[in-house]
From TrEMBL:
PANTHER family: OS07G0645000 PROTEIN
Phosphoprotein as UniProt keyword: no
Parts of the chain that traverse the membrane: 178-200
Keyword line: Membrane, Signal, Transmembrane, Transmembrane helix
The name this protein goes by in its record: Uncharacterized GPI-anchored protein At5g19230-like domain-containing protein
Top-level division of the source organism's lineage: Eukaryota
Matches recorded under InterPro entries: At5g19230-like, At5g19230_dom
Uncharacterized GPI-anchored protein At5g19230-like domain mapped to chain residues: 31-157
Length: 201
């Protein structure tokens, strides 16, 4: 009896929590695909691969979330005329959220692209065959963070100088990913406790 109750109550909750935990991973696939594509592009130009920067990735994710409801047009994303990029009034807050500030990000570059369904080959060419290629082929960039939301994918490039490192002098760079991992564990424990509570009833 107890074990059939257990399956009845626990399995759906377990499945739900696995699905919820896996959700961000699907997004990361697209981001990882693009990172691979960009590094292949750089290798073809004899440039070093860009390494992942956690704070830049955080900022890219925040920017993508800001763009997410804007439709793709011929004046958005990689089609934007340089100098007319949208400015988000809460950009300083996004920096704070990602443990960044103006001093350690000013030499970085933020490149948003809008591609319906984030179709992988179009996503890559929106970076390698547009104005953005001029940044991707620049030797001064050494790091990268990628984030996506809906049809929007944002690449943030970082340098290895203090003014573009995206690394604060103090504070550990992977604080955010650790925080989200701890968040996931709590989420799972919450569901587990919930199902045990139901079971005991
Ligand atoms: C990359 O390096 C190889 C070998 O050094 C050379 O043959 C090739 O032309 C270079 N390609 C570019 C794009 O510079
Ligand atoms: C963008 O699209 C509009 C209509 O959809 C068109 O009138 C305009 O010429 C296009 N602009 C560019 C730069 O392609
Ligand atoms: C960029 O993505 C758009 C879709 O929003 C697509 O129409 C366009 O062809 C892409 N540009 C390049 C150079 O791949
Ligand atoms: C980088 O890309 C830009 C724009 O496509 C191009 O003008 C420039 O010659 C490229 N530089 C290198 C080193 O490939
Ligand atoms: C940015 O952070 C660094 C330390 O990480 C600090 O020294 C600097 O004053 C900050 N700059 C601004 C503009 O807040």
């Amino acid at each position: 009896m107890a074990s059939s109750h257990f399956c009845l109550l626990f399995l759906p909750l377990l499945l739900a929590s696995i699905i919820l935990l896996n959700h961000p991973v699907k997004c990361e696939d697209e981001d990882d695909n693009l990172l691979q594509g960009i590094n292949t592009y750089r290798a073809s130009l004899n440039l070093t691969a860009l390494s992942k920067n956690d704070n830049a990735e955080c900022l890219a994710g925040q920017m993508a979330a800001k763009f997410k409801d804007q439709p793709c047009t011929n004046t958005t994303g990689s089609n934007t005329v340089p100098g007319t990029e949208p400015v988000f009034s809460d950009y300083p807050n996004l920096l704070v959220t990602c443990h960044l500030n103006v001093s350690n990000t000013q030499d970085g570059t933020i490149m948003p692209a809008c591609v319906p369904g984030l179709e992988p080959s179009l996503v890559l060419t929106n970076f390698t065959e547009t104005q953005y290629s001029g940044s991707l082929n620049d030797t001064k960039y050494t790091g990268v963070g990628i984030g996506s939301k809906n049809n929007w994918i944002v690449v943030v490039l970082t340098t290895n100088t203090p003014t573009g490192s995206f690394v604060p002098a103090t504070s550990s760079p992977d604080a955010t990913s650790l925080a989200s991992r701890i968040g996931s564990i709590y989420h799972f424990l919450f569901l587990l406790m919930g199902s045990i509570f139901l079971l005991l009833n």
